[in-house]
Structure formats: C-alpha cells, structure tokens
Amino acid sequence: MSSNIVIAIDGPAGAGKSTIARNLAISLNLKYLDTGAMYRAIALYVLHKDIDPQDKDCVKSVLKKVNLDIKTKSNGNNLVFLNNQEITDEIRQPEVSKAVSYIAENFAVREFLVEMQRKIGRDGAVLDGRDIGTRIFPNADFKFYLTASIEERTQRRLCDLLKEGYNTTYNEVKQELLRRDEIDQNRTYSPLRMAEDAILLDTTNMTQKEVLSKLLERVEGHE
Ligand code: CDP
Ligand code: CDP
C-alpha cells in the first residue's frame, strides 16, 4: 500500500467517522486528522473570550491570535493544542458542540483552516469532517460518506456523553444533532454534502468492525 494515499471520510454528526477514520489510519499506517477538532478548538477560544460565535467579523478579527497544533498519540488519537495548551477533552463539551457550527459557517474560519488541513494531509492521511471530499481533497484517492439513522446517531452520541459524565437526555442529544446537521448542510461555504464520487455507507445496523472491514476491503482491493 502506497504510504501517501489520502482518504476522505465525511458525513453527519455521530455517523462514526472519527472512530472509523482513526482505526482505518492505524490499519493502513497512515496519519489521522480529525478536522472537526480544529473547528471545535476555535469555538472554544471564542467562548473563552466571551465572543458571540455568530458575530462573524469579531470571530474573524481574533483568528490571528489562534495558534493551533495537532499531535498524534500512539493510539492514533489526535491531541489538540490551542496556544500551547492542551484542549483535547475540553473541545468535546456540549457548549462547544452548540457553538461550533456557527464558527464553521464563517468563511474566514474555513479559509484559515483549509491550508493547514491540506498541509497535514497531503503526504498521506485519513481525514474526517464535512468537506474533505468536496473541498479539502477533491482528488482524494478514496472518499467515503458515512451516515446512519438519526435514532442510531443519537443513541451513539448519548452513550458517549453519558460515559464521559455529562448529564443529558436522548431528546436533548437528538435535537442538538438535528440542529447542527441543518446548519452544516445549509451554510454557504463548503456545506456538508456527499461528493459525487464518494462511496456511501449507511452504518445504522453495522458494528464498528464491520464498517472498518468494508472500508479496508475497498482500499486494499484497489492496491
Ligand atoms: O464529532 P462530531 O460529529 O460531533 O463533529 P465534529 O467532527 O467534531 O465537527 C464539529 C463541527 O465542525 C461540525 O458540526 C461542523 O459544523 C464543523 N466541521 C466542518 O464544518 N467541516 C469539517 N471538515 C469538520 C467539522
Ligand atoms: O465522528 P462522528 O461524530 O461521525 O462519530 P464518532 O464520534 O466516531 O462516534 C460514534 C460513536 O458510535 C462511537 O462511540 C462509536 O464507538 C460508536 N459506533 C460507531 O462509531 N460505528 C458503529 N458502526 C457503531 C457504533
């Protein structure tokens, strides 16, 4: 397997992108980049500064103060640093999830991240996000679009949040995922949509292992 292949994994929240992308990267000995973590890091910075995430000009004006760094742990997880401080766990907080889609519809933010993501991925990587196959790497070697029913995605995200100690309900999580998907799909710049040449996989009734095997089959079958 060539070591500089680029694999794009896009799809809505809770479809299993990060988990699968990380495991695929490990299996193929490639770098893994969670691009959503970068948007979350900017959202966290904005919240820390008490800036309204929807105030596009103000958010744009503080981007020059944001220094992002992504490192990879031995288990393949991304460690996220904002201005030299590790924020890997903090960016998963529900307040960040609430704000992040407003940050991601800001053109200045997307432009700020696009080059960084291309630079990290261009020598070979598995990247997951919303616009990897459509905007970041339109010529990626493989493009996958993962999805699952809203009920299944809610269940998965609910379980993760409860495990991490957050107090929430099925309905709260479901409304939050629907709200975020709606903003992500309808924004002007790089909206969430499946690339025409992407392979669609509905993972509703699939285990992680089954999803990983399917993706590996596709990638290794094309060696
Ligand atoms: O893991 P989860 O599905 O909750 O979301 P994420 O991948 O951490 O991404 C958080 C948010 O960042 C998304 O809801 C999008 O608004 C935005 N995002 C984006 O616009 N483009 C990407 N390539 C990745 C994330
Ligand atoms: O990145 P994205 O928001 O698309 O999903 P994720 O953060 O990877 O979360 C998906 C959750 O569902 C994780 O806890 C996985 O263990 C679980 N899961 C999955 O990813 N894929 C399946 N086929 C079944 C469960």
TrEMBL record:
EC class of the enzyme, as a word: transferase
Catalysis performed (reactions): dCMP + ATP = dCDP + ADP; CMP + ATP = CDP + ADP
Subcellular location: Cytoplasm
Annotated SUPFAM superfamilies: P-loop containing nucleoside triphosphate hydrolases
Keywords: ATP-binding, Cytoplasm, Kinase, Nucleotide-binding, Transferase
GO cellular component: cytosol
Pfam families with a match to the protein in the record: Cytidylate_kin
Location of the Cytidylate kinase domain: 7-219
Superkingdom field: Bacteria
Family assignment from sequence similarity: Belongs to the cytidylate kinase family. Type 1 subfamily.
Protein name, per record: Cytidylate kinase
Organism: Natranaerobius trueperi
Gene responsible for this protein: cmk
